[in-house]
Design brief:
The protein has a single domain, classed as Metal-dependent hydrolases (TIM Barrel), CATH 3.20.20. The protein starts with 7 loop residues before the first strand and ends with a strand. The chain is of the alpha/beta class and 170 residues long.
């Protein structure tokens, strides 16, 4: 007789979906090909199958997609692609999108606020000139010191938009 195990309720606060074959992650192919070598398109069903496995005692409650290092020019496309991916699941998911706080954020803010799953932004702010690996190759300066970044934080506040601070000191 097999013992029945109660399922573990799991809400994933940070996961990625990527399309490094023809989608918004093609410019960062080296990173994603290393992490997902057999899945050039790693969509929501791939993610759910990975988490749930073969008969794992997990009840996936939903989760939060966190921006997946799409280059600045592809960040809006990434949000739209992920939102479409999430349509393929009935689970409640949210989107924390990418944004460049060193630039004009008007269009990125407008498009993402129209997405019902949008929950906020993340921008990798860490920069270490001597680091072996820079998490976001577009980060070239210490953004905390820049007036434009500070002004954009104020715009996010005025629009009641959350921001996930990612800082990985090396």
């Amino acid at each position: 007789m097999v013992e029945q195990t109660e399922k573990i309720k799991f809400f994933d606060p940070h996961f990625h979906l990527v399309d490094w074959e023809s989608g918004p992650h093609t410019d960062n192919i080296a990173l994603w090909k290393t992490l997902y070598p057999t899945h050039p398109v790693f969509g929501i069903k791939d993610y759910e199958n990975l988490v749930l496995g073969d008969g794992q005692p997990i009840e996936l409650m939903g989760g939060m997609f966190i921006e997946a290092n799409a280059q600045e020019k592809d960040r809006i496309a990434e949000s739209l692609w992920v939102d479409k991916q999430l349509d393929e699941s009935e689970r409640p998911y949210g989107i924390v999108a990418g944004i460049n706080l060193q630039d004009d954020i008007t269009e990125t803010l407008r498009v993402n606020k129209e997405l019902p799953r949008f929950r906020g932004f993340r921008n990798i702010l860490n920069w270490d000139e001597g680091a072996e690996i820079n998490m976001d190759p577009e980060v070239k300066t210490n953004r905390f010191l820049e007036e434009k970044v500070r002004a954009n934080f104020k715009i996010l506040e005025e629009n009641d938009v959350t921001f996930e601070l990612m800082s990985n000191p090396h």
